Sequence to fold (227 residues):
Amino acid sequence: MTNILLVEDELGLVLTIADRLRSEGYQVATATDGDEGFERASTEPFDLLILDVMLPRKSGFDVCRELREQGFSMPIIMLTARGQTADKVQGLKIGADDYLTKPFDMLELLARIEALLRRPPVAAPATGNQATFGDIRVDQKSTEVTRNGEHVQVSALEFQLLCYFIEHRGETLSRQKLLNEVWGYRAVQSTRTVDVHVAWLRQKLEPDAKKPQYILTVHGIGYKFQA
Fold:
């Protein structure tokens, strides 16, 4: 049974979400502040985390960041009452896989959960277990990325996106195709999520993120990996 942790301090919303998820066959645990959420997420086996941004004691951003820094790779959906793009971008940058702005439709949350849970395994680079470009080395077996021999910290989703680019080297990939194949979405979703993750990979891997050499923008379509 899929085990989900819901970290939310609005008790009415906790009851609503937890009851609906359980009715869909999920096993649900809850926490009502950031400290408790982090403790449970880091010590218990969860398949997915639903994480509110505005939490007592420790913010959702801090919980997400610390989990990723410690190597936890479970999918994270962030819930926010804020509508500003900057807050959504921040969540994606620190390792969240998706976000929903309150109020949201329960069917939309269920669709996002299903998409993340059925996300395909990371594809191996076309050259086998390892791929190199410039001063970057990608080891699919150990899920490690290095730059000039130094470890580069990437989230599980960033690693999956990078491997997909490497596997499809030279192909022009639309944002929607990337959303479908890497994120697992089969319905129309915001492609801003793709742009944010590409921008973050460029910051970590490109010699000059403002003038990318490897992950190129194909205007009006999407991206192309060229190395």
About this structure: The longest strand covers residues 3-7. Confidence is low (pLDDT under 50) at residues 121-127. Helices lie at 11-23, 34-43, 60-69, 85-93, 106-117, 156-167, 175-183, 192-205.
